[in-house]
């Protein structure tokens, strides 16, 4: 199954508007997103957006995020998550082995959220 995964990273307390803005920037001109993904501990905060968009949400384990190399490097993400971009790492990890980044992380105008898109061919692992 081909998956287009939007990975999101965001600050604690990021409003839904920031998540939507980052998502809109990342998906512009690209294939339709089939899944959302983020770090497992952030999944409850992303669930309202997943419900609003009617998309399955894939929580990604912290160790998987840390093992994933990313195209962009955020000092804050490196410090808190052990990866250069939570958005990119979540998208790539959730899209499965051999996934390719379609869109580097895009940052919401308020800088509260980021979103990146990856395409892969994986079994669904959503919860």
From TrEMBL:
Residues 1-26 form the signal peptide. Keywords: Hydrolase, Signal. SUPFAM superfamilies: CobE/GbiG C-terminal domain-like. Transmembrane segments: none annotated. InterPro entries: CobE/GbiG_C (IPR002750), CobE/GbiG_C_sf (IPR036518). GO terms for molecular function: cobalt-precorrin-5A acetaldehyde-lyase activity. Pfam families: CbiG_C. It is an enzyme of class 3 (hydrolase). It comes from the Bacteria. The keyword Metal-binding does not apply. Residues 4-118 form the CobE/GbiG C-terminal domain. Its EC number is 3.7.1.12. This is Cobalt-precorrin 5A hydrolase. It comes from Novosphingobium capsulatum. The lineage of its organism: Bacteria, Pseudomonadati, Pseudomonadota, Alphaproteobacteria, Sphingomonadales.
